[in-house]
Amino acid sequence: MRIKEALKEKNGSYILEKLLNKDKAWLFLNDNLNVPNEYFVIQKKIKNGYPIEYIFEEVFFYGEKFYIKEGILIPRDDTELVVEKAIKVINEKCKMKNEKCLVVDCCTGCGVIAIEIAKWTNTKVVATDISELALEVARKNAKIHNVNIEFKRCDLFDVKGDILVANPPYVENFWKKPNKYEPDLAFFGGVDGLDIVRKIIKKAKNLNYKIAIIEIGYNQKENLIEFLNEIDCKYEFFKDLGGRIRGVKINFFSKK
Ligand SMILES: C[S@@+](CC[C@H](N)C(=O)[O-])C[C@H]1O[C@@H](n2cnc3c(N)ncnc32)[C@H](O)[C@@H]1O
């Protein structure tokens, strides 16, 4: 197959750019050359369900490149909305404080949320995950992006802070994963998907957090409202451009 034909295939240009270490312009100028054999091996893997992000160990999020590897959740575009919301809220709430606000990113995975917050706000950021492999990848990303984040391996979080941000596992247990290579641990949150979300909210309330910003599924609003109405808090759901619910912002009332 010549480059010309490969460029018409899904992911063709990206795979060739990576394999040949050339840019798109070079590919177009040399489109009569044959593609290397590896091209077919990679396309076959992708067709069999292996995520392209794991092949080249990179993923783009919030306009930037991050390291990723098999076994860690590949960040999704939807989460960019949560990051955007968190940065806005943090910059509004924390600029009045004399000392730095403490923001905790619970369930950090490869660290994208914590890293963007560390870049775009003037806060101290702590990131937690129960998976040592996730933390290893997140630490590497923090180094690549030159940001200072404290990483902690724990069940949810055990530090007091001002603002809690999370994209936890929130998928219903019956759901079929998009591929078998991303970990169950990153997806499933019980029968209605909200077991871990509820635990995070309770914990944030008990540890006296002021605000929590949490990603949830588009169909989970009603179930979560039932739970939130039992807690002393104010909440608002936020939506993506398509009008679908993507997350919730919770203001906890002070215990005093
Ligand atoms: C949906 S992924 C989110 C990853 C990342 N924040 C993102 O948005 O791409 C959920 C993460 O939660 C972690 N996790 C699952 N259960 C946890 C728990 N009880 N405590 C801390 N982290 C947990 C998983 O290891 C996984 O990295």
How is this fold's topology laid out?
Blueprint lengths: L2 H4 L5 H9 L3 H6 L7 H11 L4 H5 L1 E4 L2 E4 L10 H17 L7 E5 L5 H9 L3 E6 L2 H13 L4 E5 L9 E4 L28 H12 L4 E5 L5 H8 L4 E7 L5 E8 L4
Parallel strand pairs: 3-4, 3-6, 4-5, 6-7
Antiparallel strand pairs: 1-2, 7-9, 8-9
This protein binds S-adenosylmethionine.
Sheet with the most strands: spatial strand order: 5-4-3-6-7-9-8
Q: What can be said about the biggest beta sheet? A: 7 strands, mixed
CATH superfamily of the largest domain: Vaccinia Virus protein VP39
> In the CATH scheme, what's the topology name of the largest domain?
Rossmann fold
Give the bound compounds: S-adenosylmethionine
Strand percentage lies at 15-25%
Characterization of the model:
There is one protein chain. With 256 residues, the protein is an alpha/beta fold. It has two domains: 3-48, no CATH class; 74-252, Vaccinia Virus protein VP39 (Rossmann fold). It has ten helices and nine strands. The protein has helices at 3-6, 12-20, 24-29, 37-47, 52-56, 78-94, 112-120, 132-144, 195-206, 221-228; strands at residues 58-61, 64-67, 102-106, 124-129, 149-153, 163-166, 211-215, 233-239, 245-252. A seven-stranded mixed sheet has the order 5-4-3-6-7-9-8, sandwiched between helices. Strands 1-2 form a two-stranded antiparallel ribbon. A hairpin with a 2-residue loop joins strand 1 and strand 2 (64-67). Helix 2 (12-20) packs across helix 4 and helix 6 packs parallel to helix 7 (112-120). The longest helix is centred in the middle third of the chain and has 17 residues, at 78-94. It is elongated, with a radius of gyration of 20 Å. The mean pLDDT is 95. It binds S-adenosylmethionine. S-adenosylmethionine is lined by residues 73, 75, 79, 107-109, 112-113, 128-131, 134, 155-156, 167-169, 185-186.
